[in-house]
Amino acid sequence: MLAILDYGAGNQTSVRRALDLLGIPCRITADSGDLERSAGIIFPGVGASGQAMHRLQTTGLDTVLKKHIAHGKPLLGICLGCQIMLEYSEENQTETLGILPGKCVRFSENLQDQGVPVRIPHMGWNTLHFRRESPLFAGVDPESSYYFVHSYYTKPAEDLIIAECTYGLDFCAAFGRDGLWAVQFHPEKSGRPGLKILQNFYDWCVKQNVCAENGAVLC
Predict the structure, then answer these.
(1) Quick check: is 186 catalytic?
(2) N or C: which terminal CB in the chain sees fewer CB atoms within 10 Å?
(3) Which residue in 79, 104, 165, 172 is the catalytic one?
(4) 155: burial class by Cβ within 10 Å (0-12, 13-18, 19+)?
(5) Is residue 30 a contact partner of residue 61, using CB atoms and an 8 Å limit?
(6) How far is CA 121 from CA 53, 109, 152, in A?
(7) In DSSP terms, which residues pair with 95 in a beta bridge?
(8) Which of these, 3, 13, 5, lies nearest to 62 by C-alpha position?
(9) Does residue 205 have an active-site annotation?
(10) Among residues 82, 165, 186, 205, which one is catalytic?
């Protein structure tokens, strides 16, 4: 079962519908027992960083989430969840979770593409260009497009960047390491490529749990 973290930041229902379509067992939850029993956690979100961090901290879910990650629980951050996995966000000048090194910054209001002003927020479909391979994108056509809605973008440590997107500038669209991933776009709203990413995440979670149950170091 995948746990979809419920911390009042929206978008959980869209993720659940996508997982239901794939036949992946899931539950929207803030219950620590559900998180413990889950094969992996999806950390979605829409809204503002300051408000999201306040909700996580007042409920203690920030500590719970970091505990599970420290113990190797797979995690996939989406949109706002992706942004607050880093250390700091310019939005509301917020100290965020610090799960991975980096910060989140706002697109410049003066951003242009070939002399044409770029609208903020970035909203719509864009392709990615990949820096390195990742199990999260296994079997996904590299020319696929994904759905974005955001005014801020992430700047993680360079060695964590998996893929970038171009919108007035090149920004990080996916980052992380095996089992700990974050995507700025919405896979649950990105058609077949997005569904494949969610399936890949679930398959990874299942494999890691089987390996752990078998006591394997490598699986």
Answers:
(1) yes
(2) C
(3) 79
(4) middle
(5) yes
(6) 21, 10, 8
(7) 88
(8) 5
(9) no
(10) 186
